[in-house]
TrEMBL record:
GO MF, any single term: phosphoric diester hydrolase activity
Domain called GP-PDE: residue spans: 43-328
PROSITE patterns on file: GP_PDE
PANTHER family, per database record: GLYCEROPHOSPHORYL DIESTER PHOSPHODIESTERASE, GP-PDE DOMAIN-CONTAINING PROTEIN
Source species, domain of life: Bacteria
GO biological process, one term: lipid metabolic process
Protein name per its UniProtKB record: Glycerophosphoryl diester phosphodiesterase
Length: 331
C-alpha cells in the first residue's frame, strides 16, 4: 500500500501535464496562421500623404522640421497635394492618406504642420490664416537635402494646397484616410459636417483617424464612418488579447483600423494572417507600419519588405508607393 500512493501521485501528475499540453496544443491550433497557409493576394498599399519626400528618422522629435533633412529627391512631388495623391494611385496605391486642419475662416485645409515656416514661404499658424492666404503659398519652398545649399522643390507647388472637399471630389470611389491633425472637437465637428453631405455609398470609402477628441466628434455624428484613434485601438487590442484566443472579436474592434508595428502584432492571437482575416470579418483594416510606429515611418525601400510577414494580406503603410508597389505583389 505504501508503494501505491506515489504511483497514483505520479499518474495524476502525468495526467495533469497531458491535459495542460492538450490545452496549449488546442490554443495553438485554433490560433495558428501556420496551419492555414499564407494570406491570399498581395498586400494593400496605403500611400501616406500621396507620394511624399522621405527623410532619415535619427534624431527626429516633435519640433523637427523634416523638410530641411529630406533624402535627395527620387521624385518631384510635394506631399498632401492632389497631384501627389494622383501619382500614388497611378502607381498602385489602394488608399491615400491626407492631413486636414481648420483655417481661420473654417475651411478644411489639407496640410500637415501646425505652422508654415518649415515647408512653405509663409509664417505663423495654419489656423490663423484664411484658405485664400494659404492658397498663395509655395508648398515646396523649404525642402532641402543639402542643408539649404539647394531647394529642389522650390517653385514647384505654388498654389497647390487643396481642401478636403477637393480631394474627395478628385478621387471618386477611391479609398481615402483623413488624418485630423488638431485634436480639437471643433475640427472633428467640421469634418463630420462635411462628410454628412456625402452619399452613404461614398462614406464607405472614407476613414478618419487622429486624436481621441476630434475622432470622437466624428463618431458621435457619423457612427457608420470607419474611424480610429489611440483610445479606439487600445480598447480593441485589450479586448482581443482577453478573448481572441476563442476566435471571438469584440465589438470594440468592429469597423475600425489598427495601425500596428510588427513587433506588437506578434503578441496577438492568430498573428499574422489569421488575425488579419478575423479583423476583416468585422470590417476592420490591419495596417502594418514601419519601425516602432513613430513619425509615420513606412515601408519605403525594397529592404523594408524583409520585415513584412510571409503571405501578408493586410495593409502596408508607405511614403513611396512608386518603389513598393512593383515589389509588393510578390510578397
Amino acid at each position: 500500500m505504501r508503494e501505491a500512493k506515489p504511483r497514483r501521485w505520479v499518474r495524476r501528475l502525468w495526467l495533469t501535464l497531458a491535459v495542460a499540453l492538450l490545452v496549449v496544443a488546442g490554443l495553438w491550433a485554433g490560433n495558428s496562421s501556420a496551419l492555414r497557409g499564407g494570406g491570399e493576394g498581395r498586400p494593400s498599399l496605403l500611400a501616406h500623404r500621396g507620394l511624399a519626400q522621405t527623410f532619415p528618422l535619427d534624431g527626429v522629435g516633435n519640433d523637427t522640421c523634416t523638410a530641411t533633412r529630406i533624402h535627395p529627391p527620387g521624385h518631384t512631388y510635394v506631399e498632401n497635394t492632389i497631384v501627389s495623391m494622383r501619382a500614388a494611385f497611378d502607381v498602385g496605391a489602394d488608399m491615400v492618406e491626407f492631413d486636414v486642419q481648420l483655417t481661420a475662416d473654417g475651411q478644411l485645409a489639407v496640410f500637415h504642420d501646425p505652422v508654415l515656416e518649415c515647408r512653405t514661404d509663409g509664417t505663423g499658424r495654419v489656423a490663423d490664416h484664411t484658405l485664400a492666404e494659404l492658397r498663395r503659398l509655395d508648398l515646396g519652398y523649404g525642402y532641402t537635402a543639402d542643408n539649404g545649399a539647394t531647394h529642389p522643390l522650390r517653385g514647384t507647388a505654388v498654389g497647390l494646397l487643396p481642401t478636403a472637399q477637393e480631394v474627395v471630389a478628385a478621387f471618386p470611389g477611391r479609398e481615402l484616410l483623413i488624418d485630423l491633425k488638431d485634436d480639437d472637437p471643433a475640427d472633428g465637428t467640421a469634418l463630420a459636417g462635411y462628410l454628412a453631405t456625402l452619399p452613404a455609398e461614398r462614406l464607405t470609402t472614407i476613414s478618419v483617424y487622429g486624436g481621441d477628441h476630434s475622432v470622437q466628434a466624428v463618431r458621435s455624428r457619423l457612427p457608420q464612418v470607419r474611424a480610429t484613434s489611440r483610445a479606439i485601438m487600445k480598447d480593441c487590442l485589450v479586448d482581443y488579447l482577453a478573448t481572441g484566443w476563442t476566435g471571438h472579436v469584440a465589438d470594440s474592434c468592429r469597423r475600425t483600423e489598427l495601425h500596428l508595428p510588427r513587433r506588437y502584432g506578434q503578441y496577438l492571437w492568430g498573428w499574422p494572417n489569421l488575425f488579419v482575416d478575423r479583423m476583416r470579418d468585422v470590417d476592420t483594416r490591419v495596417i502594418l507600419v514601419g519601425g516602432e510606429g513613430d513619425w509615420s515611418e513606412g515601408f519605403d525601400q525594397p529592404e523594408d519588405l524583409d520585415a513584412v510577414p510571409s503571405g501578408w494580406s493586410g495593409w502596408l503603410w508607405t511614403n513611396r508607393t512608386d518603389v513598393i508597389a512593383p515589389l509588393a505583389g510578390g510578397r
